[in-house]
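A note from the maintainers: we've had questions about how concatenated examples are separated. There is no special marker in the raw files; a new sequence line simply starts the next protein. For clarity in this README we add a label.
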Amino acid sequence: MIVTDKFYFLHLHKSGGSFVNRFLLKNFSSASLIGYHYPYRLIPRQYEHLPGFGLVRNPLSYYVSWYSFQKQIKRSNLLFNCVSNNGGLDFKRTISHLVNLSEDQARIDFLVENLPGNFAKRGLNLTGKCLENIRSKNIGFYSFLYWRLFDTCKQISVGKMETLREDLISFMSSIGVLLTNADTQIIRNSNKVNCGNHDHYRNYYDADLEALIRSKDAMIFDKHTY
């Protein structure tokens, strides 16, 4: 979460937020990082009245990005190890477990007990208490992250990662924040940040797994017309 004197930004996991974080912290003197992947409910009261900006991406793309990143790092996180049987399962079975996590009481119990009790400054940044809220919600994991981040927001504009640059410029214009020509060029032309190394997400799915995700994450597919 980043706050400024004019707006706030909520960073949804692996949805283009690192680009926005870097731009805001470098180019807005009033920008302050409150916490990594913090949800709206943790925003300081003096910023609650401001308009907010967030990002979302196609859930099919999100799960590929999450899985690929965990497979490529030296030490995968507890969540990945839990749903992949410590890396022993393939993409389809791992993501099936992740997407169905809200109904998997045994895995939820394990994660709630073993995730940190306090927030950190990196990674997915979920505590055991946070993950308890997924229990029996019958939604996909990405939908849970979305709900957790944006729940109770009073004013929020959610752009798409796929059109991030223009959506960010449009948001600024809509709330009366005047970007300089230099700022606009930075948004439009600067390099991507924290990009994953994987094939196009379509190459990872069969019909059954795609259908599962479209069902479990239907809220995002419908709300954001994916």
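[label: protein 2]
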Amino acid sequence: MQKIAPCLWYEKDAEAAMEFYVSVFNGAPVKKEESKIVRINRFPEVAVDEHMVGLEGKVSSGEFELAGQRFIAFDGGPIFKFNEAVSLFVECESQEEVDYFWSNLSAVPDAEACGWLKDKFGVSWQIIPTALGELVGNSDPEKAARSMQAMMQMKKIDIAELRRASEG
């Protein structure tokens, strides 16, 4: 069992989010482990106090796994919203993988920048190719700077374009 798991607070869409993420990760071109919903517990059908009004039957706690990473999710009402201070990082081995996750997760074009996107539930994701670390961390500072400059102009990361920029 994983000792630490991110917990995601949704207003009312935890179950839909879990189903969506599992379907996206199970359809990925590279799968290391099956993604799945592990369990869903629900709030009672009758609110037992004023804090639970509107959450009747919604997810009080859910557990799901994406590519072997455990997550917790629940519906907590409109008190808190997701923001870019926390994002989920997806490391991709190829442009095909970057393109797949980008096309399946991105739902807010205005939030796209430097490999970051926002999904339809408001969660921020970083869709990052392993090549990015190699290119911006190049031992040649000029190549690294050119790669970084190119990446800063991108929304979705384009590995071939980064390589061209690195080489000058």
